[in-house]
Design brief:
The complex is a heterodimer of chains A (118) and B (114). Helix content of chain A is 0%, strand content 52%. Chain A is an all-beta fold. Chain B is built from no helices and eleven strands. In chain B, strand 5 and strand 6 form a beta hairpin. Chain B is globular, with a radius of gyration of 13 Å. In chain B, 34% of the residues are buried.
Chain lengths: 118, 114
């Protein structure tokens, strides 16, 4: 079974600084997708960024980028120029690729609470 | 375009009562997912449907839980009888049919069982 581990229960950053959130996963699959979701106090789950395992290039979305290390099964999220609105719980998630059952299922890590200090 | 709609947003009930949570997926999405979020277990998938057919219900805790999707625009998650340990936030999400596509989450239903 796939597992996703976020080893940092809490992180903090100063406004305008950069912070990196860690995520590791365990899978025997070669085809899969990785996601970072943000959950602000409103509890709405919002997709931040996604990465296809077959792509070597790290995904980037504005101030958000990932460091995808497939061999190490590591998928960290870097937030540059942190803003107060970035404060939230961040979840790393895994989804297997096509084929077999349960390919649509998202497996989540435990989450990391990010605090942004003004 | 409206996102995933869930109702009610909050539900407080007493142990032993039946609870029904409702979800309307985004129009055109053919996959629907029910997740539960608790402090102890985090976010976990309960069941998901593809084209209204249940594909994987291995996450459904026990027979007290049941889910249906009678048509492409509506799904229910029912708990009967409810227990205090069922207290959680229940999310519904939908996704277009292609593999790897984003799952769009609803606002969640906070359930409290007294």
């Amino acid at each position: 079974a796939q597992t996703v581990t976020q080893s940092q229960p809490e992180m903090s950053v100063q406004e305008a600084e950069t912070v990196t959130l860690s995520c590791t996963y365990d899978t025997s699959e070669s085809d899969y997708y990785l996601f970072w979701y943000k959950q602000p106090p409103s509890r709405q789950m919002i997709l931040v960024i996604r990465q296809e395992a077959y792509k070597q290039q790290n995904a980037t979305e504005n101030r958000f980028s990932v460091n995808f290390q497939k061999a190490a099964k590591s998928f960290s999220l870097k937030i540059s120029d942190s803003q107060l609105g970035d404060a939230a719980m961040y979840f790393c998630a895994y989804r297997r690729g096509a084929g077999g059952t349960s390919y649509g299922k998202l497996t989540f890590g435990q989450g990391t609470i990010l605090t942004v200090h003004p | 375009d409206a996102g995933v709609i869930q109702s009610p947003r909050h539900e407080v009930t007493e142990m032993g009562q039946e609870v029904t949570l409702r979800c309307k997926p985004i129009s055109g999405h053919n996959s629907l997912f029910w997740y539960r979020q608790t402090m102890m277990r985090g976010l976990e998938l309960l069941i998901y449907f593809n084209n209204n057919v249940p594909i994987d219900d291995s996450g459904m805790p026990e027979d007290r839980f049941s889910a249906k999707m009678p048509n492409a625009s509506f799904s229910t998650l029912k708990i009967q009888p409810s227990e205090p340990r069922d207290s959680a936030v229940y999310f519904c999400a939908s996704s277009p049919g292609q593999i790897g596509n984003e799952q769009f989450f609803g606002p969640g239903t906070r359930l409290t069982v007294l």
